[in-house]
Amino acid sequence: GTVTTQSGVLKDTQYSWHTRFEDGAGTNPEELLAAAHAGCYSMKLSFVLASKNLISESIDTTCSITLDNGVITLSHLDVTAKVPGITMEQFQEYALEAKEGCLVSKLFNTLITLKATLVS
């Protein structure tokens, strides 16, 4: 089948068994969930930093979803950010705050892990 989003970003995008478990071109539920989690997390981290009067130069987040026996067992966030004027301890605290406050994190009923890297 195909999937189309309201925004039109995805339009008649291939969406099937082959795109999920084989080498078909297109997307699948896990890829879409991972993209939503990474995007939501980045937005929440930016919001948390701004609330502390810190402006990030960059926030780059990836998310990996683990599917085991038909169950999503893990969503792993990996963020690298450049934030002038912040200590490593503050960054780790705010990164965790963003993980806990992210709307997609709140939606998931699975283990969520985070690796947060601050670059200069």
Shape estimate: elongated
H/E series: EEHHEEHHE
What is the mean predicted local confidence, pLDDT? 92
Strand content of the residues, in percent?
25-35%
Oligomer: single chain
User: How many helical elements?
Assistant: 4
- In total, how many beta strands? 5
Question: Which structural class do the helices and strands define?
Answer: alpha+beta
Order of strands across the biggest sheet? 3-4-5
Helix content: 25-40%
- CA-based gyration radius: 16 Å
How widely separated are the two ends?
45 Å
- Low-confidence spans: none
Query: What can be said about the biggest beta sheet?
Result: 3 strands, mixed
Task: Walk me through what this model shows.
By secondary structure, this protein is an alpha+beta fold. It has a 3-stranded mixed sheet, covered by helices on one side. A hairpin with a 2-residue loop joins strand 3 and strand 4 (71-82). Helix content is 39%, strand content 30%. It is built from 4 helices and 5 strands; from the N terminus they run ββααββααβ. The termini are far apart.
Descriptive terms for the model:
120 residues; three-stranded mixed sheet
Give a topology summary.
Blueprint: E1 2-3, E2 13-14, H1 17-21, H2 29-51, E3 58-68, E4 71-82, H3 88-101, H4 103-107, E5 111-119
Parallel strand pairs: 4-5
Antiparallel strand pairs: 1-2, 3-4
In short:
The chain is of the alpha+beta class and 120 residues long. The chain contains four helices and five strands.
